[in-house]
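### Sample
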Amino acid sequence: MKSLSSSELRQLFLDFFEEKGHKIEKSVSLIPVDDPTLLWVNSGVATMKKYFDGTVKPDNPKIAGSQKSIRTNDIENVGVTARHHTLFEMLGNFSIGDYFKEEAIVWAWEFLTSSKWLDLDEEKLFVTVYPDDEEAYTIWREKVGLPENHIIREEGNFWDIGEGPCGPNTEIFYDRGESFNDLPEDHEENYPGGENERWLEIWNLVFSQYNHKPDHTYDPLPNKNIDTGMGLERMLSVLQDAPTNFETDLFLPIINEIEKISGVSYDKNEETKVSFKVIADHIRALTFAIGDGALPSNEGRGYVLRRLLRRSVMHGRKLGMSKPFLSSLVSVVADIMKAHYPEVEEDKDFIETVILNEEERFLETLADGLERVKEIVKSQKENQTTMISGKDVFQLYDTYGFPVELTEEVVKEEAMEIDIEEFEREMEKQRERARSARQTEGSMAVQSSLLNNINLASDFIGYENDSSISTVTKIIDEESFVTSATSGKTVKLIFDKTPFYAEKGGQASDAGYIVDQENEVIGRILSVKAGPEGQPIHETELTGPISEGEEYELRLDEKRRRLIERNHTATHLLHQALKDVLGEHANQAGSLVEADHLRFDFTHYGQVTEDEIKKMEMIVNEKIMENYAVETLETSIDKAKELGAMALFGEKYGENVRVVMINDYSKELCGGTHVKNTAEIGLFKIVSEAGIGAGTRRITALTSEGAFLWMEKQLNTLNKASNLLKVQSSSEVPTRIESLQSELKEANKANESLHSKLANAQADQIFTKVETVQDIRFISEEIKAKDMNQLRQLSDKWKQNDFSDILVLGLRDEKKVNLLVSLNEKAMNQGLKAGDLIKAITPHVNGGGGGRPDFAQAGGKKPEGLPNALNAVGEWIKMNI
């Protein structure tokens, strides 16, 4: 067995499959592109879905790579077990309708056992197969020569994640030896494939040969696929003879740095080791995720990052680190991974800044959390209870990121305890929500053979042409090829060439018309999408007959195309303006270019100010007025990078790319359509900017005609306001509004004073309406007050005098009702509580509420029930004394 570093193992795997004719694909961003089913890229196959379901046809059907992935469904196990990680790398080889079981199995065995590659001892390798998969069993026995006692039939060996490609799989296990055996000899899990520490799964080969259909039946796939996954971390632990993944060269340099910072030894005890492992794991995930554009926030993937960071900080506290330390570990991660991921080193300063800011904010949060715990403790003491609600503790943990352990410390000091069972119930609800959200992860479209069987080229000529004479090469009616179609049908058409741009890269497709040789419009092209090989497929509503092999004229909706071009070029200007104003970290995270507007999503970890928006808008308009030429260049990807062209978020590019250059100001890789010079854009106006979660913000903007019409609408609104305010000029509108606001404020003060006088006048009468039940005096009346604030003022006045022992006041309007209850010492000494009373009478008003023993309030949705609620007070007193 070879002893390899992580970089050597990764490269050896890629070299092996490159020798076998595979295209080596670079790891994609952890943030999924065009896949709403995934929060993170969580496996190698997640990046292959478009190939597996037939949406896109790859240049080479044999693909291999090392894909960084994130999974956080079992975060509690990280650091506790030997192999749980949030970030990990999946080495994988894939066949998209090319080779199948025999090659996948034989090549896996060759890579693992050949002296040229890993040189593992064959005696230590075992495999599991699906019981019904005789083909795989036979290959292992006859082609590989594996003994029968090294092949285990395992019922769970069938990979199925819902609708789409699925099939049996075979797993390869490495026997780490008797010293790793953690189970009794006769234990049901003590075998290769069982849940144990001795036999370590190192590779999973999935044979996608069936379509899992919506009706839960299984049909053979038109194109069978291979999907394999080998965890880099666990394979490395075998080659480096490490007890756990954390003792490999992927983690040890981080652990050593933590030892230096903390002054604590990794081997001090098992509890200390857990803290080291958690921090080492989480800083890798944070570094890569932030480098890929995710930012800490309160939702989505941003919440995951915030949770990882806060968990790391808390484990740092266990090691005696009370000051920010995580950001100093980023350079260690970058150094470990630089051979395959040089971008981490390039983004190091930005990643460190984000982590340091978040660390400092969390330390402030811890201080705020302590204050919140003290408030809860004080409130519970006033309610005369020693139990802290599990819901309150969960909210502290979930919303504020305040650790349960710290809450327990504070609570114990006050001789109180936490309702831990309620807390666990809330935690389980959160886990269930997470599980439900993950149920669709990894699902794929059901594979269709129809489009995969189109082997026709279709040239896009729309960069230079708005129309063309083109020949129909395919007509698709629903899910069948036909040779002709008649008026009234909606069909999909492929032509030998087309000026119509297919929806791609955020740019909406073109629309337009099909004209026959008599110059009659016979079809309206509604939209255009790209087929598996990139062919533009025109969805067309026919108004006349059409036939395969015939020539027709394709005419763009030229006005729509020009509007789209203006909006698209404006997004390039905006992208660079964002970087100029906010910083280089402001990267595109998605865009939409329509005819009537543009939408641009970008990464940013703070608010965008009004001044920053104005500055960006001004920069874009300056570039428009400069009348810059917009030029395109087709070149190699390497040459494009030399030119300084920006590659957009999550996009994959071939060897040859198209660069769109706007003077020297903006250079981007882009296949979309653009104006010839910036002056054609006319005008640029940002109409909204907002956060859309997970450290991502969105700008919506208009250009040319849209911007002009929007400004006209604003001017009309301003003119209308001028007329209503009766001012001579629109410039006087703000001054007039301020004057009106001042007048309104004075009127509200007078109104408030009148309400207060009215309430006090009522109080003089109400406080005389005292009833008595068994020596307890009570007042139970409806008040014509403005709001609950005035009810509370009356309650305060009642407390300062000896009008009665209990006060119950009600307030209602057409839609709702409010109730207030106050008790004095005498009533409470009789065992009465305001909270109990209000709970007893609120059912009459379809409401609920609560409070302290001396004071409670409630709301209800049944105003007509207020008299009954007030009348029930005397009876309640009688029953509870």
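DSSP finds 24 helices and 35 strands in the chain. This sample (Alanine--tRNA ligase) is used throughout the tutorial notebook.
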